[in-house]
Amino acid sequence: METYLYQSIESLPMPPHTDREYGDTSFTGLPSSLLDSARELAKRQKVYPRDVFTQAIQDLIARLDAGETIEWPLSRPFVGTTPYHTRLEVEVLEEMRKACERYRLRKSLFFLTALRDHLRKNGIEVEV
User: Fold this and answer.
1) CB 83 within 8 A of CB 32
2) pTM, whole model, 2 decimals?
3) Is the pLDDT of residue 2 over 50?
4) Which of 26, 56, 62, 102 could in theory staple to 85 by disulfide, Cβ–Cβ 3.0 to 4.6 A?
5) Rounded distance, CA 54 to CA 13, Å?
6) pLDDT given at position 76
7) Which structural domain range is residue 46 located in?
């Protein structure tokens, strides 16, 4: 009997156990094309989507703290109304919450902008 080793590009190995704590959050108003592009970037970089999300959040916080002018998208009714649930490191969630308070932003708008800008930085243009 022959045994074939097969690993789909779709399935990544389980992440190693770490001391990191993860928290749950959800975002609304995200176009599915934005999330699909983020997943595609994660595949291309051979990381998990949460790693792409984390980098996007941290990049936007750094830009805001540096005083950079940010192009905030306008929210559109009925676009991405289904909540998108994800798990991120608790530390990252706390940094994002503090930045949203400091700059008086809604969490979903912050994440939408962070992800859009991170994708653009990586050569992926998404309509939001």
Assistant:
1) no
2) 0.81
3) no
4) 26
5) 19
6) 63
7) 22-69+77-121
